[in-house]
Design goal:
- The protein is mainly beta.
- It folds into 3 domains: about 60 residues, no CATH class; about 35 residues, no CATH class; about 70 residues.
- It is about 0% helix and about 40% strand.
- The chain is built from no helices and 13 strands.
- It has a 3-stranded antiparallel beta sheet, with no helix packed on it. The chain has a two-stranded antiparallel sheet with strand order 1-2. It has a two-stranded antiparallel ribbon with strand order 3-4.
- The relative contact order is 0.10.
- The model has no long low-confidence stretch (mean pLDDT about 75).
Amino acid sequence: MSKSIVIQQKGVDQEMTVSKINTQELDGFQCSWVPEDETQLEELTVTENGEYTPSGYGFSKVTVNVDTPAQPVLGELIATTNGTYNPADYGLDGFSAVKTNVHGADPEYTRIYFYSEPLIPPCAGYPLDLTGVEVHAVKSDNTEIDITDQCLFVPQDGAVVPEGTTVVPLTAFWNRGQS
């Protein structure tokens, strides 16, 4: 027959159910105690939420409700200007992806020049031959590319060189829309 009792351990009341209580009269007083084998506390290690029931004595049942940290709130950022972006400003804990489309983030072209001259020098009365002409563009990071195929030349290839002319000023206009 089980009995429910309250014991105090380290100043804390604990309710236990025991199967036997010893009682004895001592100096005219009735004394009751729980035999030592009935008060063995069961060790419990809790690592997750759930209900834990003892296999013996020590606790009747433990319910654990451990707060699990909330999953972070992430969002995508599309940056169109340079600057500092704080997730909290967008009601987020962090950014899951960041896409940038910032004009000027790539190196800018700083110089365009004639890399090579025509193979055939201009000759008065004959068509201008731009074979061999190369135009290059230099970026701010000192890399350069050949842009000859994207240029419009004035005078154009095949234009007749005026009489009495030995030097033809050549201008290249770069159509960047094709790059």
